Amino acid sequence: MTSPLEQKKIRITGPSVVTANRTWDGAVVYRTAKQGWSTELADSAIVNTSDEARALLAEATADDVGAVGPYIAPVELKDGGKVKPGNLREHIRAKGVTIDLQVPA
Amino acid sequence: MPLVKQGRITTDLFVHVADGAELPGDGAVLVTAERFLADPEALLRRSGKVGVIWPNSRNLEELVPHLDRLASVALVFPTFRDGRAYSQARLLRERYGYDGELRATGQILRDQFVFMTRAGFDAFEVKKDADADAFAATMKRYSVFYQPTGDGRVTALNRRMQLRHSESAGQ
Amino acid sequence: MYAYDELDRTLINERVSEFRDQVKRRLSGELTEDEFKILRLQNGVYLQLHAYMFRVAIPYGTLSSKQLRRFAHVARRYDRGYGHFTTRQNIQFNWIKLAELPDALADLAEVGIHAMQTSGNNMRNVTSDQWAGVAPGEIEDPRIWSELIRQHTTLHPEFSFLPRKFKIAITAAEHDRAAIKIHDIGLRLHKNADGETGFEVLVGGGLGRTPFIAKTIKPFVPGRDILSYIEAILRVYNQYGRRDNIYKARIKILVHELGIEKFAKEVDEEWKAMGDVGLTLDHTAIEEVRSRFSYPAYEKLPHMPDELKQAAHDKLFERWRKNSVSAHKVQGYSIVTLSLKPVGGPPGDATAEQMDAVADLADKYSFGEIRVGHEQNLALPHVAKRDLPALFKALDRLGLATPNVNLVTDIIACPGLDYCSLANARSIPIAQELTRRFANHDTADLIGRLHINISGCINACGHHHVGHIGILGVEKNGEEFYQITIGGRADENAQLGTLIGPAVPYAEVADVIEDIVEAYLALRDRPEELFVDTVKRLGVEPIRERVYATR
Fold first, then answer.
1. Which residue of C has its CA nearest to A2?
2. In terms of pLDDT, which residue wins out, A104 or C314?
3. Which pLDDT value is given to residue A101?
4. Which of C28, C77, C97, C370 lies deepest, with the highest CB count within 10 Å?
5. At C139, which helix (H) or strand (E)?
6. pLDDT of amino acid C146
7. Size of interface A-C (CB pairs under 8 A)
8. Which pLDDT band holds residue B170 (cuts at 50, 70, 90)?
9. Is there a contact between C157 and B147 if contact means CB atoms under 8 Å apart?
């Protein structure tokens, strides 16, 4: 996955959200439509055009105290309006590592 | 932007004069290296003090012949993370014996004060008021230093050896 | 062990309180993330995919049982119950909260542990041979010098904002276990013709996007001059190293662009111009540091105790002993490597329970001392041979006696896309699958020494370039692909591997590796010829043909 930290031009090709890490604990958060952050992807504001994405990102970036390194990430909208992460990186951020954590004793 | 000198916030007597801008008739000025090197004698003939803003990528050898007539050398930190001027500062102090004002200009936060002082800076154009206010407290933050520099602070190694010496002398 | 004195402890505590102030300013908004980022990196704090990651230094890989127990405490109290040992003698915690970090640091400081300069563009943890001081045939204990350099480069007022990170490794043994040739500065301790102790200084090694093997800049620098010589190298680098492009900022690029001769000349000129700046280490100064390293009071023990003879019939014990137990410089003692590479486990991870248990075993069997090596394993450096059977049983119960040290399943891997915000592809699941494929220890023994290294991106934290087999994760159209190289090595004959063929998708990596190993088994001219030697003798082509013929 090309690191979104290298995101320069903003051009989206499908539904997207703005995500970041919360400053005090580093937790994965998503920008909500109410100008706040949520740890639930389901609460995120979904944008569909590059202009909307740019505006949401600018508004999220202004909250430097709340969250770190906001960027635009793709999502998939499933039937019934369920929001799913749009790539493997975002899947891992949303659902956790893909490995069994504990070293077998 | 507050200036910290001799550990205190003080009025900056120097005026930064941009290239092409007219020089004030008297008073202390800080000019760019280019402007200074174009005609050092003319500048030094003025009644006011002269300081030079020296870029961190420029060879110090060009500056060295003029050091004893300069009232200030300002070294530049274009960003917080660009540390070239620390080397320049130590060279000016420790190799070339410069003892005038050595000023840090650019992105200066409290987190650099100890490093800068140890490298030989004694004047700081600080970006944030709160950091300038915290100067004295910040300088007290460290009491142990591992490296010898021109600032004369005793290194940990020397303190240990002194301790050892006095212990063995007392036996 | 090195004993911190009051001055070392004071400095660490002062650093903790400075960092506490920095975190406070960040959380209150007084510092922007842009400003804070450099400050947190200087203290080992990254922001990864899921959380902050906290990297703690284990200078020259030496730990006391008390310190290891404190890692367990941090893992439990501030994290999710485990830690990850890295390739540079650090431990990483993956889920630390920024707001709690100052407390975690303060807890570590109580046992003389810090996170200073474990990231950022400064001098990183000075690493060394994990067998330093106990390996037979060493010139002397390289940790004396590592500690001198550690102190000199800690909070250095001139070199805390270098163009890029800077890593030093030191070895004093014939066989290089510290991978000095892939470091910014590599130091090899040796004696010159007059019997004087000093260093061969290598410079400009490093992996990443543009890998280089370090070159010798000076064949002999006397020990007393090593700090001033390093200072000269750093000063040249600080002034001339590139700052316009992060990928060209390491010293290896400067050395490459100037050429080693020109670079050496610059350093020499600076070194001469420096004159006496108080950096010469006289005998007393060196002895001052040496005196604070303590060594165990070894007993006079037989070479072959009864306990060992009796255990020889136990096949599992014997397999482990032959694999994981190494010669010690003192008769009757051994160095025991504890594999952190169980079949199916993430390489280099240890749980808090394991850390506590290893600390107890170190107290019981290894004079309270533990070592950490760049292969992401632990070691107990002073185990009496008579205790080996009992130690084996205890380690086996903990899952730390996998007899795979230096074998195909002893994989070095970076955290990869499961944790890392820079990664393009996952590393750990690839390692896990490979350990399952080669889970049969008889097969692994048959294959012999084989290092597999996996990196999840071009930054090469898994040192893939110098793996006998190197695996590099890349991204192609949103999918994980892996480039495979063979023939690399990280030791005294360090060499970069050669690409064997086109990148393969995630699901096929383990198959390809199995095929490569099978090709080697078919092509080696005798069982003793190691994988890397077969590649050297035959080149890549015969192996490529066999592996890619049907692909």
1. C424
2. C314
3. 55
4. C370
5. none
6. 97
7. 103
8. low
9. yes
At residue A3, the pLDDT reads 54
What per-residue confidence (pLDDT) applies to A1?
Answer: 47
CB contact (8 A) between residue C33 and residue A104:
no
Tell me whether residues A93 and C344 touch, CB distance under 8 A: no
Q: In 3-state terms, what secondary structure has residue C473?
A: strand
**What is this structure's pTM?**
0.96
Six token digits for residue C270 = 């600076």
CATH class of the domain whose range is C142-291: alpha beta
B100 CA to centre of own chain: 9
Dihedral angle sign, alpha carbons of residues C87, C93, C94, C99: negative
Q: Do C98 and A26 touch (CB under 8 A)?
A: yes
Taking the C-alpha atoms of residue C14 and residue C116, their distance in angstroms, rounded to an integer, is: 11
Tokens of B153: 């602070």
What is the average pLDDT across C138-160? 97
CA distance C458 to chain B (A): 24
Phi first, then psi, for residue C201 (nearest 5°) are -105, 125
pLDDT digits (tens, 9 = 90+) for C472-506: 999 999 999 999 999 999 999 999 999 999 999 99
Report residue C32 as tokens: 């922007």
Which two structure tokens, joined as six digits, stand for A43?
A: 């609460």
Neighbours of chain B (3+ CB pairs under 8 A): C
Contact C158 B161 (CB under 8 A): no
For chain C, the structural domain boundaries read: 6-109, 142-291, 306-398, 412-548
| pLDDT score recorded for residue C129 | 97
Chains contacting chain A through 3 or more C-beta pairs under 8 A: C
Class assignment of domain C6-109?
alpha beta
- Closest partner residue to B111 (CB to CB) among C5, C39, C274 is C39
The distance of C83 to chain B (nearest Cα, Å) reads 30
Of residues A3, A27, A97, nearest to C418 (C-beta):
A97
Residue-wise pLDDT for C421-456, tens only, equals 999 999 999 999 999 999 999 999 999 999 999 999
**Nearest residue in A to C79, CA atom:** A25
Residues of chain A with Cβ-Cβ distance to C423 below 8 Å are 1
User: Are B161 and C30 an interchain contact pair (Cβ–Cβ within 8 Å)?
Assistant: no
Nearest to C236 by CA among C268, C198, C214: C268
Confidence band for C551, pLDDT divided at 50, 70 and 90: confident
The tens digit of pLDDT for each residue in C53-110 reads 999 999 999 999 999 999 999 999 999 999 999 999 999 999 999 999 999 999 999 9
**C418, A98: Cβ pair inside 8 Å?**
yes
The mean of the pLDDT values for chain C is: 97
Question: What is the distance between the alpha carbons of residues C132 and C137, in angstroms, rounded to a whole number?
Answer: 10
Dump pLDDT digits (tens) for C210-266. Answer: 999 999 999 999 999 999 999 999 999 999 999 999 999 999 999 999 999 999 999
Q: Calculate how close chain A gets to C136, using CA atoms only, in Å.
A: 33
Cβ pairs bridging B and C (under 8 Å): 95
Q: Which residues of chain A have pLDDT under 50?
A: 1, 103-105
Contact A42/C at CB under 8 A: no
Distance of CA B108 to the CA centre of its chain: 12
Subunit contact B142:C284, Cβ cutoff 8 A: no
Distance CA A64, CA C29 (A): 8
B113 touches chain C (CB under 8 A): no
The CATH number of domain C306-398, selected from 3.40.50.720, 3.30.365.10, 3.90.480.20, 3.40.50.300: 3.90.480.20
CATH superfamily of C412-548: Sulfite Reductase Hemoprotein, domain 1 (3.30.413.10)
- The β-bridge relationship of strands C45-47 and C498-499 is unpaired
- Tell me if C142-291 shares its fold with C306-398: no
